[in-house]
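P.,

For your records, the input lines for the assembly:
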Amino acid sequence: MSDPASPAWPASPRADFIGALILFVFGTVVAAMSWQMDRFEQQGATLHTAPGLWPGIIGLMIVALAALLAWRSVRRARAAHWNAAVPDDTVLVPRRDFWLAVALFFFYAAGLVGRGLPFWLGTAAFVAGFVFLFQRAAGRPTNARAIVFSIVCGVLTAVIVTLAFEQLFYVRLP
Amino acid sequence: MFEGLIQFGHSLVSFLDPLSIGLILLSSLVGVIIGALPGLTATMGVALMTTLTIKMPSNQALLVLICTYVGAIYGGSRSAILLNIPGTPASAASCLDGHALAKQGQAGRAMGIATSGSVLGTLIGMFFLALFTPVLGDLALKFGAYEFFWLALFGVIIAGTLTGDDPLKGWLAGLIGILSATVGQEAIYAYDRFSFGNRDLAGGFNLVPALVGAFGFAELLMAVRERPVPVKINPFDSVIPKLRDVTQYWRTILRSGVIGTFIGILPGVGEDVAAWSSYAAAKRVSKEKEKFGKGSIDGLMAAETGDNACVPGAVIPVLTLAIPGSAPAAVLMAAMLIHGVRPGPMIMIEAPTFVYDVVAMMLFATLGILLYGLTLTNLLIKVLMVPKPVILPIIFVLCVVGSFAISSRLFDVYVMLGFGVLGYVLRRAGYPVAPLVLGMVLGDLMEKGLRRGLVLSDGDLTPFFTRPISAVLWITIVLVILFKLPLARKLFRRRPVASAN
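Structure tokens returned:
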């Protein structure tokens, strides 16, 4: 744990404080749920064999460390300001593109796979769609060639993954 | 000793069939490619290959995983040297001098140094793996529930302390990992914890989908967030290592090999710390300190030898104590359990030849990276040129299929998604993910150690603190924590002369 004056802080005191609050609440809930777990006293069990003992200890440790993190973020904020953090020089994609990618990932994993659509078809559609949309987001032309390229990527991935898993490694596909 | 050599010889011969050789060639190549691609790490590679090899015989599956692991740690040096982007966190130290050499038109020489350092580092680590595993295995037989509790806790604490910028966040990540291991039925009364009446949750989280999520999907989300940079690679010289570069820096190689192996043995620390420690040690004793960061052969050799020596080092505690030395070794340990191999103190009694099988696998993995290091430079450059929008969805498909493949349940795909989001949120907030993984893997061992110990001592905590090995472990844990707390550091810090005056 670095000193509040340390120059290398990847997250701002505000972010740390919010994270600490979330963890504090989470740890408290875990400790409370652990306390309410059955202790099997009617079966002669003692405290040290109770199912809630270990998660309860972990919950309390999370509470303690979260409190420490919150205290440190307040000290850091006093030493500098609430938004002080090391500037991140990573060049990011527009937020819209990031959320589009997340939506595509979730749509494929939770919506397409294992819902009746053949695996190869869902995979080909997902890969082709992803490649096309993000080639466009990268500023590349969206002409017929780009569409064909995306479809080829999708079909090739679907065929290779299906054959490799099912025929070579004998693994069931969703 | 001769018995060990004979067993090692038997193990070597057992892998000399066409199928095993094919698997070595293929998995080393996959490992090198995964390592070379920025954003894909060794942990992710080993986790994905675990799902792919689920139906293979155990020795062949582990051969694939070890070749992937060694290959990925080595492959990271390629993008570090050519693009100044570490392919894996283990190669971050190689960027400093590797890319500086590339800018001076000596990228080929730098890649040759990386190849020789990685090969020799793995061989040094392999030597210690063969030497220390039986010795540590004997020592581990003295470990009881109390010692295993402290050792597992030590692993999570050390991983939390050393793998990120902020130990407090590292420890919190470790605790979240430990807590995730408590979900589902507990061992004594089969009581459902945190399952909320859900039958899938009552079975607990399957380790591999959770690891694929925390390392694979989370890394994909991080990669999606960053705008792709156009890849530009300058022409370079020969990649064949020069004998003079090896003979001139033999001290660096030996020192870094020992440091890398030792850091590998430390639970949960991993290859990136091994590389940086070896680099720092080389800089401290070098006569050419000013060249470090500007294209020092010594620095690059130290980093590459250190990170690869860490791989066999990280496997030593897996085999002897069932405590992983690094995040990829944690996945490897999970794979061993899936394949019916029980790593831990009994391994030298139950399966003594297995240890030599692992040493032989390391040797074949070393030969794999040597082969690809000398021959496949152009192919790797072509792989580096593949646009990110093409690679990312393919990796995600593998994450989904791999998670499903373990037990053919869609629930595991959702676990992968959940842990992926958790891993992403933690990374964004500056929490390291390696302690989370260690916590997930070691949480069960820790709880069993605590509860068994308390049952054995009838609720008395004294043996946890008074048994000799336990005492060493808990005192070390307390010291590690204390020295990271600002208050304790202030107490121990010598007052500067100026302020005293």
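Two observations worth noting. Strands of chain B lie at 184-185, 192-193. Residues 2-487 of chain B form one domain.

Regards
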